[in-house]
Design a protein that fits this description.
About 40% of the residues lie in helices and about 15% in strands. With about 375 residues, it is α/β, with parallel strands linked by helices. The chain folds into two domains: about 240 residues, Type I PLP-dependent aspartate aminotransferase-like (Major domain) (Aspartate Aminotransferase, domain 2, 3-Layer(aba) Sandwich), CATH 3.40.640; about 130 residues, Aspartate Aminotransferase, domain 1, CATH 3.90.1150. The protein has a seven-stranded mixed β-sheet, with helices on both faces. A three-stranded antiparallel β-sheet has the order 13-14-16. It has a two-stranded parallel sheet with strand order 1-15. Helix 1 runs antiparallel to helix 8, helix 3 crosses helix 4 and helix 10 runs antiparallel to helix 13. The two termini are about 30 Å apart. The mean pLDDT is about 95. The structure holds ligand T4K. The site of ligand T4K has 24 residues, from helix 3 and helix 4. This is DegT/DnrJ/EryC1/StrS family aminotransferase.
């Protein structure tokens, strides 16, 4: 079965070299030498400063919220509100709820699939503390408009850049916008460290606060300065990250071949995500948007018969999940109205991510392309 993704496995010999270094140093975790090397190399590769490695992309979000103080509302009875997108992986919104904040969903732009800044502005209330947009499938959000809203309304902006590894916007790293951006290095991502993640902070003082937080707030043998958690990356994760990074160019080239073959085959046939002008391609995902959910279900069934397992990233649209909603008592609050979500619901019902990973041969996707294009021509 050709699944939607397959983890990248680097050269075994290269991995063994890093593992030998771990056995020699006798250092396994807590800011070891490989974690430090990976930090430096990622800052250079991504063209960013103030990067902090953490144990996964969900903790990257949670630690970023805390380091920026958005969950900490003194003298306020209701939880802080944070505006985010309903069209994303569950972790973007569940991490907010988990940290005691209330996700408020604003609708997406139906072409780029990223948060619509006008909808964000309409959702701002006196209780709003932050905006958490997602560069979904590696596309850039409207970062200028969103950063301007953050400044104008004194809101922190944390971009969930889990899909945006290596993406640039107008020549600079897409991860350099907002107060912070987060990354996921999960095994299924184009760059991975088995599990892992990173936060890129705008300000050095936020990085330093977060660095303490991910090691229980400990700053010395008898010194615990503040509340913290364990979110450190260990040396085996860093070793995998280093050898995946050693081979990143070949990985990207291989993904690019498949990505462009899909793009060429579907151009003018099937609706594709509109790229934000100025954003580079990182070949992270290949989503297609079908005419309706029933067409999507039929296409999925036929693809499965041909040996493909695409995925409905991201379905359902998250505003539909009751456990992310406001507590019942709050619902009577006249101040609050969950903005109406139209586009995210619609897109979530008919979007499908096709198989895309390094090593997948263009010839292996042809049957999938045929199934989809045939179905489209039948419908037209
Ligand atoms: N924000 C956003 C926007 C995100 O997309 C994510 C994660 C996060 C935050 C949180 O970051 P992390 O805390 O995860 O670092 C996968 C990933 O688990 C998840 O990291 C990712 N987003 C999400 C988009 O995709 P699932 O539920 O689709 O994973 P799973 O296990 O079904 O794997 C997908 C396919 O990959 C399978 O069909 C087979 C293949 N696979 C997977 C694994 C783990 C393999 O062949 N081998 C493997 O070892 O969530």
């Amino acid at each position: 079965m050709i699944t939607v993704t397959r983890p990248y496995f680097p050269e075994r010999k290269n991995f063994d070299r890093y593992v030998d270094a771990i056995f020699q140093s006798r250092w396994l975790t807590n800011h070891g030498p490989l974690e430090q090397e990976l930090t430096r190399r990622l800052e250079t590769y991504l063209g960013v400063k103030h990067l902090l490695l953490v144990s996964n992309g969900t903790l990257a979000l949670q630690v970023a919220y805390r380091a920026l103080g958005i969950n900490n509302v003194v003298g306020q009875r209701e939880p802080a509100e944070v505006i985010t997108t309903p069209f994303t992986f569950i972790a973007t919104a569940s991490s907010l709820k988990w940290e005691g904040m209330q996700p408020v969903f604003a609708d997406i732009d139906p072409a780029t699939l990223c948060l619509d800044p006008a909808q964000v502005e309409a959702a701002i209330t006196p209780r709003t503390r932050a905006i958490v947009p997602v560069h979904v499938f590696g596309n850039a959000c409207d970062v200028e408009a969103i950063d301007a809203l953050g400044e104008e309304h004194d809101l922190k902006v944390i971009y969930d850049g889990a899909h945006a590894f290596g993406a640039t916007y107008r020549g600079n790293s897409l991860l350099s916008y907002g107060d912070a951006s987060t990354l996921s290095f999960h095994a299924t991502k184009l760059f991975h460290s088995i599990e892992g993640g990173a936060i890129i902070f705008k300000r050095k003082e936020d990085l330093e606060r977060a660095r303490k937080m991910i090691n229980f707030g400990i700053t010395g043998p008898e010194c615990i300065e503040e509340l913290g958690i364990n979110a450190k990356m260990n040396e085996f994760q860093a070793a995998m990250g280093l050898c995946v990074l050693d081979e990143i160019e070949g990985n990207l080239e291989s993904r690019a071949l498949v990505w462009h073959a899909y793009a060429q085959a579907f151009q003018g046939n099937v609706q594709l995500q509109a790229r934000q002008p100025g954003v580079s391609l990182n070949y992270a995902y290949f989503p297609i948007i079908l005419e309706s959910e029933s067409v999507l279900l039929e296409v999925m069934q036929r693809l499965e018969r041909e040996g493909y397992q695409p995925r409905r990233y991201f379905c359902p649209s998250l505003e539909s999940l009751a456990f992310l909603g406001r507590p019942a008592a709050d619902l009577q609050d006249a101040d609050f109205q969950q903005p109406e979500i139209v586009h995210s619901r619609d897109i979530a019902s008919r979007i499908l991510c096709l198989p895309l990973f390094s090593g997948l041969q263009v010839s292996e996707i042809l049957a999938a392309v045929r199934v989809i294009v045939d179905r489209h021509q039948k419908a037209a």
